[in-house]
What does this fold into?
Amino acid sequence: TVEDGEDVTQLVNLDGTVAKTFPFMLSGLSMDGRLVCRHHHSKIYDDDGPSVQGRDEGVALIEIDTGEATRVSSIDEMISMHPDPDLYRQYHLNMKMEIFHPTRPWVFWSLTNGEVAPFFDEPKVKAIFACKLDGTGLRYVGDYGNHPIWHHTDLKILCNQRMTDGRGLYWVYDLETGDNYGSYENPCGGGHPSFSPDGKYYDNDVSAD
It folds into this structure.
């Protein structure tokens, strides 16, 4: 939503009335309705170092009732944690896919240039980061995870990976054990996976071709 030329985010009741308006873009609402996750404008890195475009406030968790914000990460922090920081240093980066865990006090998000990469002829990059809701435990999870989702109870993230030959591979990151592994090859290139309500299965679409 845009008000007076500025981006805002609204929490809307099911009857269509606006419950609350935030004077910034955000994504993600905690399951208890207490927290929202805010992302910032992009930051551009060039040969002379970082140059700020818009605000660089990083990822913040905000209490809905009080408006109190806790910043949990910045682009600089995430790049410093990445095993290949030069892969991200030169690109137009922003956050997206801020998703709270359904039952555990965790949230993850993606650091990516995916929205602007085609316009700047950049290779697409995307990394997943996560932290606890008190702002501790920030960690790099892994790269190239498309459409990531949390498991209902475990600290596992399921996403799809697009392979160089066009096929897809469903990938699991386990934050408790540190393991990550390919779970199932999807010949039609992957999609938007989701877990069953009991968390035992996830869906997979297979092309007739």
About this structure: Confidence is low (pLDDT under 50) at residues 49-55. Helices lie at 75-81, 86-89, 117-120.
